[in-house]
Amino acid sequence: MNKYKSELKAQIVHEYLSTSQSTNDLSKKYQINGRRIAEWIQGYQLRGINALEKRRHKRIFTADFKLNVIDYYQTHEDSMAEVAARFNILTA
Question: In whole angstroms, what is the distance from residue 26 CA to residue 31 CA?
């Protein structure tokens, strides 16, 4: 898995939000998977600039947190990807 600097992520998200370029256009321009770019954009829109920061260590989730995520998924019409972005977790 490639690691991208926060500055590059912010630049791409800003470019997406301030121009008419699609994630596909940006994918070709930066040679980064469009799905990954879409995840950065969605994370930014849900959690702000902190969503683009690199994680420093492996996170450990409590049982309560996991149950809250499952409960949210079952009681809302969000997709799994949207729930993952909202709670800043990986889908699988």
Answer: 8
Task: Judge residue 4's burial from the number of C-beta atoms within 10 Å of its C-beta, 0-12 exposed, 13-18 middle, 19 or more buried.
Answer: middle
The residue assigned the tokens 């940006």 is 26
Q: What is the pLDDT of residue 92?
A: 64
Read off the tokens for 66.
């996991």
* Per-residue pLDDT tens digits for 1-49: 458 999 999 999 999 999 989 999 999 999 999 999 998 998 898 888 8
Does residue 61 carry a pLDDT above 80?
Answer: yes
- Would you give the DSSP letter of residue 54? P
What is the identity of the amino acid at 15? Answer: E
**If you count them, how many residues does the chain have?**
92
Contact 84, 90 (CB under 8 A): yes
